[in-house]
Amino acid sequence: MKFLVLDDDIFFAHLLADMIQQYFDNSQVDILTHIDKSIDIESYDAFFLDIELNNENGYDYASYINDSLSSYKPIIFVTSHTELWKESFTYRPFWYIDKAHYEEELTKMFKELQKELTAKDIITIKYQDILTPIPLKNIIYIHKEINNLYIHTTSQTYKIYQTLKVFSQQLNNQFIKINSGMIVNKNYIKEYNKKTSEIILTNNTLLPVSRSLRKNIINQVNNL
């Protein structure tokens, strides 16, 4: 698993990173002391954000993260400014940690975060009036047409009535958005064609990549 810590208190940032790595075996933790919008947000599983930064605001970064991600990922606010709790709910935080009691609160939160990050292995859809479970690993890609979604799996294609935005919140970090109407499972990407700006899937399906997402897609494909 991969985590991002944003905190201008470098001592606390490293302390937090050490605790994360102790709890989540073989995890990677990157540390930022200021907001950086050039990094690959999609590559992280969860975010630990301080709110009050030097001339910056952790809420602004939370808003940027939520807007940039193709699917929901946990944001944990870590701060000594408990009076800001109410405002934080606007940004859909997974948890809120008071630095004054961080050891006790992190222990509780880590357990819940682990459940959250490991629970998304199967989704259940309503297909032809029947609740149907689908393993995420079997989904190749999803695309929308008007008010319908088409879920392309290794065995069949399901047509359901749901928005892509709502459906994407059930997905894990193996899925990436390639244009406004498509999300793809990275495990089925074979390569990216720069000339045509298309990704080629393992079944040789070609899917278009929007201009605004090309850089992120190239980074994702290079890391496969």
Provide a quick synopsis of the model.
The protein has 224 residues and is α/β, with parallel strands linked by helices.
Please name the defining characteristics of this protein:
17 strands; five-stranded parallel sheet; alpha/beta; 27% helix; 224 residues; 35% strand
Overall description:
The protein is of the alpha/beta class. Helix content is 27%, strand content 35%. The protein has helices at residues 10-23, 58-68, 85-88, 102-119, 164-168, 214-222; strands at 2-6, 28-32, 46-49, 52-53, 56-57, 75-79, 95-98, 122-127, 130-135, 139-145, 148-153, 157-161, 175-179, 182-185, 189-193, 198-201, 206-208. The strands form five sheets. It has a five-stranded parallel sheet with strand order 2-1-3-6-7, sandwiched between helices. The mean pLDDT is 88.
Number of strands: 17
Given as residue ranges, the uncertain stretches (5+ residues, pLDDT < 50) are none
**Structural shape:** globular
Order of helices and strands: EHEEEEHEHEHEEEEEHEEEEEH
**Head-to-tail CA distance between termini:** 15 Å
Strand content: 25-35%
| Spatial order of strands in the largest sheet | 2-1-3-6-7
Radius of gyration: 19 Å
Average pLDDT, rounded to a whole number, is 88
Structural class estimated from helices and strands: alpha/beta
The helix content, as a percent range, equals 25-40%
Number of helices: 6
The largest pleated sheet is described as: 5 strands, parallel
Topology (elements, then pairings):
Elements: E1 2-6, H1 10-23, E2 28-32, E3 46-49, E4 52-53, E5 56-57, H2 58-68, E6 75-79, H3 85-88, E7 95-98, H4 102-119, E8 122-127, E9 130-135, E10 139-145, E11 148-153, E12 157-161, H5 164-168, E13 175-179, E14 182-185, E15 189-193, E16 198-201, E17 206-208, H6 214-222
